[in-house]
């Protein structure tokens, strides 16, 4: 190798990006062992770095040569008119710059706004993205990392970047740049590469397996054979095994509720240092993984052990899901939650409400509660409190602020320095150190802007001499002072950088220890492999002894390696290397350097035996015969798959629609409009005419451009809103009742791209439970791949291939309609036969063939029947309110007129089937009330006990005052309303109601006021 990768600067340099010479690479070692760890790390690091660098390098080369085209945006995103502000502190507590990047400075950068980008959902310029700032005048590149961004600031063209300190930094603000962003997210690469650099022979667990020098199953290093194991089929069925290594003492497969292969896989996982379990489609990989975890949790004493009484003694099972498969990880952990509630889900991408209270965020909140307890924190971490105070004092000494600074801070709040009081928060120590660095570097920048062409070397003068100096001498003296002060500041900056780097390291260690202490309360820790690399310090603090990797064959080898620590004593990998391989960005690295070969597959190819599960529980047998033996030598069908329902309205549950409509190219992707239209119309037919639920249908596309075509066309069909449409690669591990597969490729060159790859074919064909409908050109595919050729034979043998899709009436199987174009799909029933279905009432439906839903209406058949009430009924057959025919209830439909007594006691004529309690009476009646009057009314038809009668007759009421008033009999007066005239004490007469004995005088009189004037006022 030309250099030592362990000494690499992980962040690419200008030379790395602009180089045109051949990059030194070696293929992954397949079928042979690595000679040593150094070679292993060298090969893996170079391949991984090149997977990120090559698209970036190619995009830059096209840009510099003037050959950059719009389709090349798949390699680079371009931002124009990029200008720098000054450096400042990032008000963002999500991430601390890693130790290796601690010499970097933070800058606020403006760029030309992009109004068409939806920044709230876009993956552009996210935290951790790598960007290059290109100066077109000099072709110089500045490499930077996005350390702070939010949708509001991005919409205004603002972002914060971290750039490694250099002399060139003094001139950033003088130029305008073009910013280039790699479309490949850099952060996962950075995290994994840094972990690989730090591995040593002592810290690399199970190194003999990774190098390929060990190919036999050896037991874990913990003393599992000395313990009695508890094995369970269920909560009520438990077995005690004194010696797990003794086959004769183990419960049988039937006793454990497992088939033969599942049984073998369970014991391999419990007794092997490295266990490989291959699970073909539908064989229950997750089911088995949960059984293994339950067995490990039931027997923690066999592997947990003790560690000199320290809290770090208890280790957890760390379950690492496939990279970027957060949904799959959530689903798996939801299953683990049924076994134990002591789990923690690390990572911020969980969408599961069930796991909301089990995320690391909740754990961190507990850490903050402890840290915010001042006495607790200061007593346990006095050193860090002292350091924060020292840094604050140093910060105040170097504080320099100009008027322009204050103005810019008011304009851009992201540039403000944090001068708040010391608080015990997660990043406080780091913020103070970073703050100090920013201030001193700003002073250095300010001083460096002053010319330094001539300095006064003679320093022996009196202060009074300054007044006699010439202007030139004064400037020379000033430059001398400036240079001296600048040298002093430079020394302070270097010292502060050393302190900052030291504090970053100690802070990260302290943070990892605090989180690890809380994580140890859990039995299972779940994270993606990318998350494992990013949380390396936490993993090392956890000292996990057992690591399980689900979908291990879909994960890059380096990602699994970075999920392991020196304390790992057992690795259990579950996956299927005959399905999707790990995704890589550079096809050449997969084809010629085997970068897409997972650790799971490489160990199998190197001779380590994997247990392969053999019974599938997902697909109907007609689907399985497409992949057996074309892809898998054998795969047994479980008895339950024979009971899967047929797809309604279709002649075949599996069918290949062959056509010759050509594909179209869109950049590096392809689409086929004919397949889009046919697929959507088929889905509509199943939903509208056959009443298949939209959630039961998934449309799979093999190319991203086709996916976009599906999305655009679906907007016109409201029925398809709940139909899932995705690419094949995103659907591994998932399934649905009906799959519509669009293969896209159709050209005269017989070019099928990755459709010739057996792994992708396997995934595409094994997702359906009940029905699979494939659209493509079978002749072209068969010429390109022997797998498709074998499949064509099977399809032809069973009549499941053709240029027309056969629809079938489920009631009249002989009625078939063939669809060749999207417009040929029927609206409504295409069968014109009489329905003939037997209704619930026993009659036969005589309508033209129709949907079963129409049978819920009344049966029109005329019947004559003696009802239970004794009357004869002649009329249409009918049903009761539950739409279920019941002869005993036919009395409810008798229309004979009879006399029935209402609740009030009056008789009334009504139909036999009518309820008298639902009728109003209305008969004229009268009643003598308690007042002695006779009350006439219309009978309400209810019991008079609940009918309140009130007398409305007008009568004379003799009042106590002697007056007589006209009142309603039921509403007597309590006071007399008779109008009377009263003579008041003032001598005036006033009219008022009889009951008002003290009315107010309203007469107007002339009165002499205190001032002597006359005034007309009310008497009162």
UniProtKB/TrEMBL annotation:
<dbReference type="Pfam" id="PF25396">
    <property type="entry name" value="ZNFX1"/>
</dbReference>
<feature type="coiled-coil region">
    <location>
        <begin position="490"/>
        <end position="559"/>
    </location>
</feature>
<dbReference type="InterPro" id="IPR047187">
    <property type="entry name" value="SF1_C_Upf1"/>
</dbReference>
<keyword id="KW-0175">Coiled coil</keyword>
<dbReference type="InterPro" id="IPR027417">
    <property type="entry name" value="P-loop_NTPase"/>
</dbReference>
<dbReference type="InterPro" id="IPR057373">
    <property type="entry name" value="ZNFX1"/>
</dbReference>
<dbReference type="GO" id="GO:0004386">
    <property type="term" value="F:helicase activity"/>
</dbReference>
<dbReference type="InterPro" id="IPR045055">
    <property type="entry name" value="DNA2/NAM7-like"/>
</dbReference>
<feature type="domain" description="DNA2/NAM7 helicase helicase">
    <location>
        <begin position="258"/>
        <end position="584"/>
    </location>
</feature>
<feature type="domain" description="ZNFX1">
    <location>
        <begin position="72"/>
        <end position="182"/>
    </location>
</feature>
<dbReference type="GO" id="GO:0031048">
    <property type="term" value="P:regulatory ncRNA-mediated heterochromatin formation"/>
</dbReference>
<feature type="domain" description="DNA2/NAM7 helicase-like C-terminal">
    <location>
        <begin position="595"/>
        <end position="777"/>
    </location>
</feature>
<dbReference type="InterPro" id="IPR041679">
    <property type="entry name" value="DNA2/NAM7-like_C"/>
</dbReference>
<dbReference type="Pfam" id="PF13087">
    <property type="entry name" value="AAA_12"/>
</dbReference>
<dbReference type="InterPro" id="IPR041677">
    <property type="entry name" value="DNA2/NAM7_AAA_11"/>
</dbReference>
<dbReference type="GO" id="GO:0003723">
    <property type="term" value="F:RNA binding"/>
</dbReference>
<dbReference type="Pfam" id="PF13086">
    <property type="entry name" value="AAA_11"/>
</dbReference>
<dbReference type="GO" id="GO:0031380">
    <property type="term" value="C:nuclear RNA-directed RNA polymerase complex"/>
</dbReference>
<protein>
    <recommendedName>
        <fullName>NFX1-type zinc finger-containing protein 1</fullName>
    </recommendedName>
</protein>
């Amino acid at each position: 190798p030309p250099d030592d990768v362990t000494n690499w600067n992980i962040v690419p340099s200008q030379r790395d990006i602009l180089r045109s010479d051949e990059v030194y690479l070696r293929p992954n070692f397949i079928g042979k062992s690595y000679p040593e760890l150094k070679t292993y790390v060298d090969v893996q690091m170079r391949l991984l770095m090149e997977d990120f660098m090559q698209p970036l390098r190619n995009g830059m080369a096209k840009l510099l040569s003037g050959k950059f085209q719009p389709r090349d945006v798949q390699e680079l995103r371009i931002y124009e008119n990029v200008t720098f502000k000054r450096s400042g502190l990032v008000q963002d507590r999500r991430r601390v710059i890693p130790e290796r990047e601690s010499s970097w400075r933070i800058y606020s950068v403006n760029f030309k706004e992009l109004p068409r980008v939806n920044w709230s959902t876009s993956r552009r310029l996210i935290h951790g993205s790598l960007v290059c700032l290109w100066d077109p005048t000099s072709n110089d590149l500045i490499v930077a990392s996005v350390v702070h961004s939010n949708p509001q600031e991005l919409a205004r063209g603002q972002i914060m970047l971290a750039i490694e300190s250099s002399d060139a930094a003094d001139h950033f603000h003088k130029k305008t740049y073009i910013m280039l962003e790699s479309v490949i997210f850099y952060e996962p690469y950075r995290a994994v590469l840094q972990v690989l650099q730090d591995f040593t022979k002592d810290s690399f667990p199970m190194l003999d397996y990774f190098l390929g020098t060990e190919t036999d199953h050896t037991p874990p290093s913990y003393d599992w054979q000395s313990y009695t194991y508890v094995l369970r089929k269920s909560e009520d069925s438990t077995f005690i095994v004194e010696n797990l290594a003794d086959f004769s003492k183990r419960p049988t497969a039937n006793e454990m509720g497992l088939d033969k292969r599942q049984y073998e896989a369970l014991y391999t996982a419990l007794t092997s240092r490295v266990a490989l379990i291959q699970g073909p489609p539908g064989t229950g990989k997750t089911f088995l993984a949960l059984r293994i975890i339950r067995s490990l949790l039931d027997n923690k004493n066999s592997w947990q052990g003790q560690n000199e009484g320290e809290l770090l003694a208890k280790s957890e099972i760390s379950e690492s899901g496939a990279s970027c498969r957060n949904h799959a990880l959530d689903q798996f952990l939801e299953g683990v939650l049924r076994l134990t509630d002591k789990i923690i889900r690390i990572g911020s991408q969980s969408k599961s409400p069930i796991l909301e209270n089990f995320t690391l965020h909740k754990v961190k909140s507990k850490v903050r509660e402890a840290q915010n307890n001042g006495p607790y924190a200061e007593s346990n971490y006095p050193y860090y409190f002292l350091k924060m105070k020292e840094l604050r004092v140093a910060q105040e000494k170097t504080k320099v602020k100009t008027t322009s600074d204050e103005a810019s801070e008011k304009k851009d709040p992201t540039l403000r320095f944090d001068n708040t009081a010391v608080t015990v928060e997660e990043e406080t120590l780091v913020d103070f150190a970073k703050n100090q660095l920013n201030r001193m570097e700003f002073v250095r920048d300010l001083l460096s802007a002053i010319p330094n062409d001539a300095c006064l070397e003679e320093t022996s003068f009196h202060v009074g001499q300054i007044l006699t100096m010439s202007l030139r001498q004064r400037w020379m003296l000033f430059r001398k002072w400036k240079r001296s002060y600048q040298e002093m500041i430079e020394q302070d900056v270097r010292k502060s950088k050393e302190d900052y780097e030291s504090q970053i390291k100690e802070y990260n260690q302290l943070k990892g220890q605090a989180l690890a202490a809380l994580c140890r309360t859990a039995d299972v820790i779940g994270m993606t492999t990318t998350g494992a690399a990013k949380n390396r310090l936490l993993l090392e603090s956890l000292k996990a002894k057992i690591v399980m990797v689900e979908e291990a064959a879909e994960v890059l080898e380096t990602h699994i390696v970075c999920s392991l620590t020196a304390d790992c004593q057992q690795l259990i990998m579950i996956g299927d290397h005959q399905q999707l391989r790990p995704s890589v960005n550079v096809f050449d690295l997969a084809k010629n350097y085997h970068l897409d070969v997972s650790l799971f597959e490489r160990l199998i190819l190197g001779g380590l035996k994997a247990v392969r599960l053999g019974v599938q529980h997902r697909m109907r047998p007609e689907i399985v015969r497409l992949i057996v033996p074309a892809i898998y030598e054998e795969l047994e069908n479980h008895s339950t798959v024979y009971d899967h329902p047929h797809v309604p309205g279709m002649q075949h549950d599996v069918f290949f629609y062959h056509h010759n409509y050509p594909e179209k190219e869109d950049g590096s992707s392809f689409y086929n409009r004919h397949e889009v239209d046919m697929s959507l119309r088929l889905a509509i037919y199943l939903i509208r005419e056959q009443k298949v639920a939209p959630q039961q249908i998934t449309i799979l596309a093999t190319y991203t451009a086709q996916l976009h075509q599906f999305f655009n066309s679906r907007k016109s069909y409201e029925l398809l809103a709940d139909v899932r449409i995705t690419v094949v690669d995103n659907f591994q591990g998932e399934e649905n009742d009906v799959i519509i597969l669009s293969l896209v490729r159709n050209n005269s060159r017989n070019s099928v791209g990755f459709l010739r790859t057996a792994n992708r074919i396997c995934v595409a064909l094994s997702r359906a439970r009940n029905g699979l409908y494939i659209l493509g050109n079978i002749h072209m595919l068969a010429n390109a791949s022997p797998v498709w050729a074998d499949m064509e034979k099977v399809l032809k043998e069973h009549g499941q291939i053709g240029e027309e899709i056969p629809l079938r009436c489920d009631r009249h199987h002989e009625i078939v309609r063939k669809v060749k174009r999207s417009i040929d799909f029927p609206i409504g029933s295409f069968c014109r036969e009489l329905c003939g279905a037997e209704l619930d009432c026993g009659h036969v439906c005589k309508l033209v063939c129709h949907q079963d839903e129409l049978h819920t209406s009344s049966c029109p058949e005329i019947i004559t029947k003696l009802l239970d009430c004794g009357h004869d009924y002649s009329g249409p057959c009918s049903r009761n309110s539950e739409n279920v025919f019941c002869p005993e209830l036919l009395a409810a439909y008798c229309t004979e007129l009879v006399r029935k007594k209402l609740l009030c006691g009056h008789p009334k004529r009504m139909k036999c089937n009518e309820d008298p309690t639902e009728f109003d009476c209305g008969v004229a009646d009268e009643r003598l009330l308690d007042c002695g009057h006779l009350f006439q009314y219309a009978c309400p038809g209810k019991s008079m006990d609940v009918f309140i009668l009130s007398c409305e007759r007008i009568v004379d009421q003799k009042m106590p005052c002697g007056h007589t008033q006209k009142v309603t009999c039921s509403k007597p007066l309590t006071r007399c309303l008779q109008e009377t005239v009263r003579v008041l004490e003032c001598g005036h007469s006033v009219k008022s109601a009889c009951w008002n004995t003290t009315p107010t005088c309203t007469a107007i009189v002339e009165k002499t006021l205190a001032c002597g004037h006359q005034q007309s006022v009310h008497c009162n």
